[in-house]
Structures are given as C-alpha cells and as structure tokens.
Amino acid sequence: METDPYMTGLSSVLVPLWVLVFAEYVPWIDQKINELVSEQQKNDAKLAHEKSELEQLRQDAANALKSRNNPFLSHLRRIV
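Now predict its structure.
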C-alpha cells in the first residue's frame, strides 16, 4: 500500500493543533474539577452535620418520652 504524501503532512500538523487546543482547556477543566470536589466536600460536611442533629433530636425525643415529669405525657394522661 502506497502512502499519500499529503495525508502524512496533514496528520503531522493536526496532532499538534489538537494538543494545543486541548492544552487551552486543561486549566479550565482543572478549575471545574476543583470546584466540584470542593462543593462535594461541603455537601458531605453538611449532610454529616444534619445527620448528627437528627440523631440528637431522636435521642431527645426518646428521653422526653421516658421522662416521668414530661408535660406532654402528663397532658396525655389527663386526656386518657
């Protein structure tokens, strides 16, 4: 098979152009990745905090229901 001299020259020019175009976007892509990672870390921290608050509320509710001096339970006892 014979090699076309025009295609050989074209491919040697296109590869560097592609690399140059890609190189222009590398800083932007890197910045976007960093922004998304930072946002994910904030979301993870917020979720962990909210889970902790929810668990504390559950414990508070359980403790309140166990308490004999609970005004809510006293009110329910009067109704029943």
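Helices lie at 5-66, 71-79.
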